[in-house]
Amino acid sequence: IGVFMKKLSQFQKVLSYLRGKKRTLTRSQAMQRFKVKNLPARISEIRQAGYKVNKVKNRVGTTAYSIVSR
What is the value of pTM for the model shown? Predict the structure, then answer.
């Protein structure tokens, strides 16, 4: 149960952040801000919750995620 509660908390933090206006989030930002080690797993949960998530790579090759809509 403890692991599930932690995932739910991380899910809520990432979702809340990405729902902000024109916000993106990379793995390193997620780790620094929310201590999320597996951002793709949280993004998958957000998609399962019905949100459309955009995935973009910058010139350096870093992947950033943003919410497009629900």
Answer: 0.82
The pLDDT tens digits of the residues spanning 15-34 come to 999 998 889 999 999 999 99
3-state secondary structure the chain: CHHHHHHHHHHHHHHHHHCCCCCCEEHHHHHHHHCCCCHHHHHHHHHHCCCEEEEEECCCCCEEEEEEEC
For residue 29, give Cα distances in angstroms to 36, 48, 50, 65, 70.
9, 22, 23, 11, 23
